[in-house]
Amino acid sequence: MHNVPQITPQELRQCIETGEDLVLIDVREDDEVVFGMIPGAQHIPMGEIPHRTEDIPSDAKVIFICRSGARSQRVCEYLQQFGYNAANLSGGMIEWNETLS
């Protein structure tokens, strides 16, 4: 298993605020993203990732997002096999939303 880089919600907010060049991909299901996504994130459900790798830039830092950080962690592990620079949003949308208040 590869070590997957982790980014906290606070670190991600700072990267977004400073305009860092990131690609955000939310791997939750359709019925989950209706409750909100991080602004600027793309939606590619986890099950579609193997068939949509052409939609994921291989030359960029890509942050994967899910509800709690578990599914996005698995997506990162999968994509690292193919050389993607993938990082996981630790704690997922649960922690992201907790840091809003």
How would you describe the overall organization of this protein?
- By secondary structure, this protein is α/β, with parallel strands linked by helices.
- 31% of the residues lie in helices and 19% in strands.
- Strand 4, helix 3 (70-80) and strand 5 form a beta-alpha-beta unit.
- The radius of gyration is 12 Å and the shape is globular.
- It starts with 5 loop residues before the first strand and ends with a helix.
Overall pLDDT confidence: 94
Give helix and strand order, one letter per element, not per position.
EHEHEEHEH
Strand portion, in percent?
Answer: 15-25%
**Helix content percent band:** 25-40%
Distance between the termini: 35 Å
Please give the order of strands in the largest beta sheet.
1-5-4-2-3
Overall shape: it is globular
Report Rg: 12 Å
Which regions have little confidence, pLDDT < 50, spanning 5+ residues? none
Give a short account of the largest sheet. 5 strands, parallel
Structural class: alpha/beta
Number of strands: 5
Helical element count? 4
